[in-house]
Design goal:
By secondary structure, the protein is of the alpha/beta class. It has one domain: Purple Acid Phosphatase, chain A, domain 2, CATH 3.60.21. About 40% of the residues lie in helices and about 20% in strands. Helix 4 packs across helix 6. One of its GO terms (cellular component) is cytoplasm.
């Protein structure tokens, strides 16, 4: 077991920022944990997906499923049913990254799904196999959170692991774990829609600084005692636009 965990969440197609954080990754001492949502909204989902898969397969990184990986897989399973909702939530950028610009105007949802399946079979199988959480010492890493009303947090539904918000943020953490999560941007958790710093409350640590919206991306290094380092890069490509 590595002596440190290095956690990154919610890359959302911001490949250059992802690369900056990966440069700080030392596989000899860090257990890398990618807390989901590498895809959608940003311009380079393909590169982010493939780097995430490479890191998992070649260095033992843990890549957790987020709600946007789930969106992507649900679309591939039922393209006509999921197309409109997925398009509104960043799917257009993913289709154009995996295929080519203008693909959504050129092809039907079923055609898009068929082309992605034919070109990215290994990636799709990899995404299907992603776990929902990772435990390390007193820490629990998860995309969205857990159901704090359950006596055992492991009984959280698969949907809540990747989708839960307010009931987890406001619930009392009696799990005995420090829960590290992404999914909900820290400007929202701080309540001012501006502050991109880490959010900490009741042994919960939110690390999604909203990079794809013009905020920041965090790479957080933990040891057994707590946070060793918070590596934060601002997205300077555009203004702060929290557009959901």
């Amino acid at each position: 077991m590595k002596s440190l965990v290095y956690a990154i969440s919610d890359v959302h197609g911001e490949y250059e920022l992802f690369q900056e954080l990966v440069r700080e990754y030392d596989p000899t001492i860090h257990q890398l944990v990618l807390i989901g949502d590498l895809n959608d909204r940003g311009p380079k989902t393909k590169e982010c997906f493939l780097l995430g898969m490479k890191l998992a397969k070649e260095t033992g990184a843990i890549y957790l499923r987020g709600n946007h990986e789930e969106y992507f897989l649900q679309f591939l399973h039922s393209p006509e049913d999921w197309y409109d909702a997925y398009l509104r939530n960043g799917g257009k950028e993913t289709f154009e990254s995996l295929l080519h610009p203008g693909a959504t105007e050129e092809y039907s949802p079923t055609e898009i799904a068929m082309m992605i399946r034919s070109r990215y079979d290994e990636l799709i199988q990899f995404l299907v196999e992603r776990p929902l959480y990772f435990e390390w010492k007193q820490y629990l890493f998860v995309h969205a959170g857990v159901d704090l009303t359950k006596k055992d947090w492991r009984e959280t539904s698969p949907r809540d692991f990747i989708w839960i918000r307010e009931p987890f943020h406001h619930g009392k953490n009696q799990t005995g774990k420090t829960i590290v999560f992404g999914h909900t941007i820290t400007p929202m958790l701080h309540g001012d829609m501006q502050t991109t710093d880490l959010w900490r409350s009741d042994n919960k640590i939110g690390i999604d600084g909203g990079a794809v919206f013009g905020g920041s991306i965090h790479g957080v290094i933990f040891d057994e005692q707590g946070i060793v380092q918070d590596i934060e890069y601002q997205n300077n490509q555009g203004p702060w636009q929290p557009d959901f």
